[in-house]
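[Q] Does anyone have a clean structure-token version of this?
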Amino acid sequence: MALDENRIRIYSDGSCRGNQSDENLGGFGAILEFREHKKEVKGGMENTTNNVMELLAIIKAFRLINTDKYTVDVFSDSAYIVNCFSQGWYKKWEKNGFLTSSKEPVKNVELWKELIGYNEKFDVVFHKIKGHLDLEASEATLKKAYAHFLKDKTNKLYTFDDFMYIACMNNKADALATAAASELVRHEGFEPPTNRFEVCDSIRLS
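[A] Here you go.
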């Protein structure tokens, strides 16, 4: 199958160089896709966390959507975010006043509340995708990654070609995040990688 043209897709990634250090550099990137239309969003922040960047990538993309007529597929390599919605953690948080099972306040609660709001406003499906997949790896390696992708029941309808396209787009989101972080401060040894994303342009849906 080709990807459903009547669904909106968000490909997202966030990262933090020096995560959990007092001084670090983070970036987020997302690609919003509907039919032949694509929009990119990116940004960077100093002294942040990886989870904040992952959340912001998705939230910034949702802010660009001006219709609730279509299902929104969110592709992320963050197990924390995907599991929160697929396993219903957020419902327990809301019931418990945004406290975790260990009675600790949920971190980044305002971001979570905004994302939960989008989940309630739209028909949203969260998908876990392996991050930073080398698209030029051996066929066996890629097939193994695809098999792991299919373990999530929300991914069962995607063909191998679909998977490769999705992985490609998430790699591009990663490139946006890296570029955004590098724009905050550039120095030797910290430049956004480009060569591993060139293969994306040769991948097309059948």
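[Q] Thanks! Anything notable?
[A] Residues 160-184 form the longest helix (25 residues).
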